[in-house]
Structure prediction request, 157 residues.
Amino acid sequence: MKLRPSELEAGGLRFAVVVGRFNHLVGVRLLEGCVRELVRRGADEGDIEVVWVPGAFEIPQAARWLAATGAYAAVVTLGAVVRGGTPHFDYVCDGLTDGVREVMRDTGVPVAFGVLTTDDVEQALERAGGTEGNKGADVAAAAIEMARLGAALGAAG
Ligand code: INI
Prediction:
């Protein structure tokens, strides 16, 4: 058996981060956690491109544009979709998750999923640097790990 250790060293890698502006404060805090983690693991801040989009529904399109450039080892998606009283939440989440999955499938570039889906804003803030940690940092580590794994396996998309 050959066990491949996970590799979380980000030095020399370029990352794109797409953040939904809807629920702006949550997005800012997730972004802080994400960038802090990428840099803590060795990424150069100049190698991190941050793109804001109106909301979660727009995230897959921006992620696709960025992934298609071939300039980034991984794309990180951040934002928060908060459940309201209408089916809108489900449509936004469906578009978001289907879209992100399609970007990964079509481009081969890892796309880390850091969009919170919560019942209220308080739950989102708890997961954006509050009592439940910072999902932005968690998915930054996932992006590094998948970028390194793809490189180690000689992934070509
Ligand atoms: N976008 C979000 O990122 N979070 C939400 O909670 C949200 N809600 O609740 O409506 C939301 N809607 C906007 C959507 O993502 C698009 O930006 C909009 O529909 C324009 O296409």
In short: Residues 20, 22-23, 54-58, 79-82, 84, 88, 92 surround INI (CB under 6 Å). Helices lie at 24-40, 59-68, 88-107, 121-126, 135-152.
